[in-house]
Queue: 4 jobs
Job 1
Amino acid sequence: MPRFGGAPKCHACEKSVYMAEEVKALGKVWHKTCFKCNGCGKRLESGSESEHDDKPYCKNCYGKRFGPKGIGGGATAGCLQTEEGGATISKFKNTNTSSNKFAAGSQEKCYTCEKAVYAAEKLIVLTRYFHKMCVKC
């Protein structure tokens, strides 16, 4: 608590914090330069932080350290894993292999050269696929 005429103390460095350099977050007062992620050291903005054991973390570090474990190291919880019999099995495995447009053998073939035609070089003429270079008038 500040004494009469004194400025509040920074939670990180215990030095006086003046109004121009003050950040209020997590119920405490910090210098702008002292309010940074305890994991990676990135400067934080008030409202963009997460707290664990009275220490600030960015959303990414907080997720990695204290979030759910699985694929992605906790940064995302989209694909969790379980271990059954020593093997790691994803709960969200794509079992529909026919929907993969990039699988071998599923590419359209050029009508002229009969090689695979990719989206960036594809030209469709009368329902036939061509490379842009293979179209001749």
Job 2
Amino acid sequence: MEKAGKLNRDQQAVIETNKNKAPTNQTEAYMQHELTRLTGENFDLREKIENLNESVKRLKRQLKTYMKKLQESGVGNIRDMDERVPDSTEADQTLPVILRKEAKFLGMLEYSKEQEEKLLKSIITDLKPRIASQMLPGMPAYVVFMLIRHLDHINDDKNVRSLIQGGISHIKKTIKKRGQTDIELKTLWLSNTLRLLHCLKQYSGEPQFQAESSAKQIEHCLRNFDLSAYRRVLSDIAVWIYQGITKVMEEEVQPGLVVALLEHEGIGGLSGDKPRPMRGRAGSTGNDLDTPTHLDPKEALDGLLTELTRFHLVLQKHGLDPEIITQIFRQIFYFLCAGSLNNLLLRKDMCHWSRGMQIRYNIAQLEQWARDQNLEDTGSKVIDTLLPIIQATQLLQARKSEEDVPGICDMCDKLRVSQIIKILNLYTPADEFEERVSPVFVRKIQNKLQERAMEEAKNQVTLLMDTKFSFAVRFPFNPSTINFAELEIPEMYNNLSQLVRKV
């Protein structure tokens, strides 16, 4: 209103002036007034443009913030969207809008060679399992391989060796320093070591590793270097980490092993099966009888199954291959079997019919747990490792007359002859109505199994199972479906995006 009033007063002044002036002067006055008006409108429009530009900048900042959040939540490649929005301060609104082409990435990462140590520290040493579990499984391995791909692209063999050897060194140092008893940290780096091993195979260019690769993945194969020699190194590191995981798991289940599997009474009301003092054997595996903590047999089995479930969740959380998870539990189940059978062979109070039923029930809970976790679906026969202790319980429950000798010998094919004879000699009738095992019956068993006994003697087979035994480890090839060109490094990853550049 003020501007309109001012404009009206100016016009009135011009009219009054023009009444007393010549036509030439009148024309100049009108032109001067029009120029003043246009200048004012120009300032008003410029102020509006500045306000709009501020709004555009604010909205672009918000857009970038939302883009980052979408990228972190796993949405596909949406970067460079802001480049398609023309800047109103630099573009003439009357001209056609010019759109920039989307950048085509090659799925590589470039880094400054002087910052290699700092980069590896961020990728490996400083990565916490809690952060890693929130990212794509195998992200550290993918990042390292994308760095290798760029060095291969520029044919830099010196830095390829330095990068891979440095990465291996950082993994070993991290586990030795922080992960001696940390199953989750060991699992994180077992998973990523194997993923890097799979990448070296999948992108080696060798046809046997490309059967499941897409056309784009085949394009991403290494062009200049043959890194097959490093596969063996990575495989050895993976075996070392794998053995560390099983060792820590065995140490954690060992204290409750005997109480859970031998002394827990899941079947109530069995005659002749009276509670016995534990005599300091809780948690013993046959050669370690000192246990600092008393465990309640009623809770021990549930505690053991809870511990196994925790292990399984940790292994799955970091994307460990299912075949490897199954092999780990095969080893753990062997340890449980060896520890429980060794204790049974040393405890006369356990060797009777009703206790055999209780132990069989406890072992059945382990079998059911393995089935519930689908550990039997991989063909590794996890439950088969429990057969020696299962057959020992069946021997305790079997009828022991002379006509049963052939059946017992066939039933106990996973037990050693010395173990069968030991259990029969320790066997105690549950009550006065049950007959003792006669010496004649034991001799007939020995005669029937004489050939097996000679073979075992030749191989120096011992009475007790070897709790230190380890199955051979296999790492089956497991290709990924990741397209490196679309892979985004999350901001939560130790600010890694500041040390590398996508190519």
Job 3
Amino acid sequence: FFFLMIRRPPRSTQSRSSAASDVYKRQFYFILFGLLILSAEFDFEFVELYFSFLKYPLGRAIFNIYMASLISPKISEIMEPINLIEAIIGATLLGIAFIYLIATCIEKSKKKK
């Protein structure tokens, strides 16, 4: 669902081309990080080699919190339609991070027994 992140350049910037460039860079990173999350879910080998923190629930939780912080719009901008979608995606990522945190706690409690 990161492919839904189509944003217009902010109106407060002076140069429209640099604002558009920033938006495209941001979209590139959203797609890249989204593919990284999917790759971690399917246990691809390169994830284990280069992004080993994504093998563990705690690492995935922290990464999802990071992604949610990048996506979430300012509170004052939430009611615009495109920002509402971003807010929903950010909340979904936070929910997934919460599930991973619970999985981490369960995993640690099983190791203690």
Job 4
Amino acid sequence: RRSSDLKTAPELVDRVYNRPTLETLQKESIKGVTEPRLLKTLAKQRRQQYMMLKQRIEREQKMFVISQKIQTRKDLLDKTRKIKVKKETVNSPAIYKFDYKRKR
């Protein structure tokens, strides 16, 4: 992109965030880090934080599937008749259809 399209200074064009316009730059000075070396370290830290967040989300999804599988196994201990509707996969537990039993 060109600086004229974004209405900003040429040295700030490659920024994805905190990209002030020329009007803002005339009114006040640039805030934050401007050195390329420090910008690289900040970008690296940001990437690492996103990686950690991604890993946590994946772990939470795996734990949810495992808890569903454990609950399914507990439900299977019932004496009622059941029919397997869907097989167990890596991402989901097996699905069973239970016969309705009237409570007395």
